[in-house]
Every structure is written in structure tokens, then in C-alpha cells.
Amino acid sequence: MERFKTTSDAHEFLERINRATGIKRNIWSRAALGWSLSLDKPPDEDADFDSDGMEHTRQMIFGDDEPVLLALIRQRYREPVPDERLRKIVKVHVERGLRLIREQYDRLNKRGDELLLFLLDQCTSLDQTKGKGASRISATTPAQGCGVVLNLGHAVGTATPVLHSLNGPGRTPHLAIMGRNSTGKTRTGLSLLHQTTTPKRPLPFLIFDYAKGDIAGNRDFITATGARVVSLPGTRIPFAPLAIGERNHHAIGIAAHRFRDTIGSVVRGLGAKQKSHCLEIIREAYVQAPNGTPDLEDVVEAAERQYQDNDWTEDSLLLCLREFTDFPLFRRANDGLDHAFLRHPHVIDIHALPEGLRKLAVFLTLDRLYAEIMAMPDAPLDKDNNREMRLIIVIDEAHHYLPCKQPTLEKMVREVRSKGVGIWLFSQSPDDFDQPKYNFAREMGLSIVFSCVLEKPKMLEALLGGKVNPKRLSQLPTGVAVTRIHGSDAPVEVQAWQP
Q: For residue 2, how many C-alpha atoms fall within 13 Å in the half-sphere facing its CB?
């Protein structure tokens, strides 16, 4: 392989990303090659690409890493690759990898710094467990159809069933159920969740039971789905939330910022000084952790040392961290980093915890899962272009979480659909979803609205595709909800359950 030229589109993107980040274009091409080689399905070697872009020599692509990259290519193709074919293979992989990088760059509002953080996050979120028991999932073509169709009930006044394809072509597997207390939103959500899984197609789910522990205490649901219940306090969530793939400066920095942002979303009024202290504390906890993964108790010990050594005044940050020792939330890192959230259904009962710790238990769990989910390849499509589902995350009483401005929850709603993950949010009103800087409702593939008080009808009308009468909405009969299904141009009333 002497040299090849990229396409004109790839050349234009390389120029742009070089200006945005200051990183040389051939380094981006090398990163693109590595990303593409990591995917299960090879690109089409006979793809019709132009050659009107940037010229790449063998040295530009391989540099000092030529033996390693050639070994990866040989391993990927399971045979030695002659030079003429190598040129074609490298080009199609570089083109695909640059396309993937460009998609992320566009998704992140063309911010070079955000792109670099995302790519570092990908690298440091690799599977924490090697070999047997690993929770990472690779993309393979589903052996059978994986479409999930939900029966929402029947149209009011008829016997016609109202059906919704959860993961059909172009669909978003996220779901919102809204309604005042005792309207049956949780009951409906659990019924729909039960429909997503069958003995032949088990689909893991993770439910956060916020208010009364009634989901964890629903024996019929737990028995029917085989869910594992984790009740706090007393038992612990079975993983270490601060685990990272590699113990290096970048990985620790990303983890520290994520932890600080999560604490800041729950502890109101953290100033710049407290946020800086939080970063110092979590970094020290990583440095001092003997196995590279600190426990929350280690973070508390690091905080106590920092406050004492630096004569910092005790404040709301320290008080929040101390609660981690009063109410242990997570399994110790020494007990293992593997977990089964991507393999088995779970219900985490947090209703007995203090309010702030309930939110922190959820947000710290989402932080860790987000890193793992985004490190997976995209979920594969079956022959009908249904995207395989891997996990459904259910947040009950979501109105307690949505105003927190927790960045990971927003990122999950925006980004995990291509990974085969659905986010289901149960809340009291459509107004809960329309936060000042982010409207969660716009990301939902399906919205089901029971009787509730509505202050922002325009937002709901945009979701349901037609006029909404707030008075009628507040007076919906028991078990009746308003929704809009794919292909319809107006809302429909559904008898979701019988009183």
C-alpha cells in the first residue's frame, strides 16, 4: 500500500475538525481506521467512493504503529492482506470511521472540545470485566425478528385495538406516561413493560421505584417478569459506580467531572469554590484507591482529609458526601465490577432513602450505565429494520428528577436509542417534561396522557398532533388516556385499562 486519497467529503471534514481541535488530519484518519476496525461488520470493499480528497501515504496512516495496525487488520480479516487489497481496505475503513466521527461531531453541536471528551469517554468506558461474565454486547444480526409491538388498549367506543411499534424503522423506543396520582400510569407502564419480553425474547429492564416501593412489592409483576429486587437501605445496588476502564489522567478527569455534575444537580447552590473542591476530592479518591476504583466511602474519607488539611469550612457538599457512609448505596469495588443490569430485569427500591440520596442513587447508576451503553456498537437491525432492544430503563415519579438538570439523564434520552435502549418516564403532568433548557417530551416516541391538570396545552398539542382540551383532559374517565400513534394525524382516546 503506497498511498490513497479520501473522498472530497472526508477531506472537507478533516479540514474542519483540524481547525476545531488543532489535531492533525492524519491523526483523525488513524483514529477513524481504529474505530471502524473495532466494529463487527466490515465495510463494503467495493463501495463507490470518489478519490478527490486528501492524499494519505502509508506513513501518514500507520506511523510508528504499523505493526499493531497491520496485526489488527490481519486479525479482523483472518488472513494476510496483500498490499493492493490493503489500500482498498484502509480507505473504506477510514471513510466509515470518519463518517462515524462526523456524526458525533454534528450531534455535539460541532464542538471540538465536546467531541474529544466523547471519544475519551468511549475509550475509558470499555468493559470492566474481561472474559466470562462480561456485560458488553456486540452487534450481530438478530437471528429472528425482534419487533416489539405494544397493545395500548382499545379505542374508546370501539373494540379496535390501538397498537404501537416500539422499535420499528425510524422509531424512538422512549415512552412517557403522564397522569395525576391514582390514574393508573404505573399500572399501565408495568403492563406495557411486561409485553416487551417473552420467554423466547427476554428483554432486561431496570426500574427505579421512587415513591412507595409498590413496584418492588408487586409480587405478581416480579414473579411474572423474574425481576431481581434491590431494596435500599439494607441491600446495595450491585455495582461500583466509579469504575473506569483505564486508570489514567484523562479517564479520572472525565469521571471526576461527571461526579461533580451529578452532585451539583442534587445539592443546590454549589458555588465555583465547592465545585472545585469536589473535583479535588474525587481525584484524590482515585489516586488513593488501591485497586484503581474508589468506593463512595473512599470519597467521603478523601473529603474529610481535604477539609481538615486545607481548613475548609464544613458546608453542604461535605454534608451530602457524609450521607454516603450513613446509607451505603453501592457494592464495594473489591466485591467485583461486573453487574447484570444488561442481562436480567431489576427493580431498585429507593423509597426508604432520604430524598437527596434517592436522586443520587439513580443518577450515579445512570452515569455508570451511560458510559457502558455508549461504548457498545449500535444495536443491529433485523430484516424488517426493527432495531434490537437491549434494555429499558424506567424512572417512576420522574417529576422528582426532570428539574434537576442532571446532564447524564438528558444525554441518555438524546443518545441511547441507537444502542437499543429505551427510557420510560412516568410523571404527573405533561408540564413536568418541559424544562427551561430541555424538553424531554420531544424525545419520546410515545406519550400516553391520563387525567391531569395542564398548564401548557401548546406543548402537548405538538406531541399529540391536534387540539387538546385542558378541561376534557382533567376529566378523562378512569382508565382512559389520550395518545397519538404512528401514522395518525390526531390524538385518540384509548381505554388502557378497565376500572
A: 0
353, amino acid identity: L
Q: CB neighbours (10 Å) of residue 374?
A: 19
To the question of domain 3-124 being in CATH 1.10.1220.160, the answer is yes
Query: What is the architecture, at CATH level 2, of domain 149-239+341-495?
Result: 3-Layer(aba) Sandwich (3.40)
According to DSSP, the residues that pair with 155 across neighbouring strands are: 494
- What's the Cα-to-Cα distance from 372 to each of 10, 28, 166, rounded to whole Å? 29, 23, 23
Lowest mean pLDDT among 62-66, 202-206, 345-349, 373-377: 62-66
Burial category of 33 from C-beta neighbours within 10 Å (exposed 0-12, middle 13-18, buried 19 and up): buried
pLDDT in tens, 314-366: 999 999 999 988 899 999 888 877 788 988 999 999 999 998 999 999 999 99
Distance CA 493, CA 499 (A): 16
Give the cell for residue 179. 397522569
Q: Do residues 124 and 251 touch, judged by C-beta distance below 8 A?
A: yes
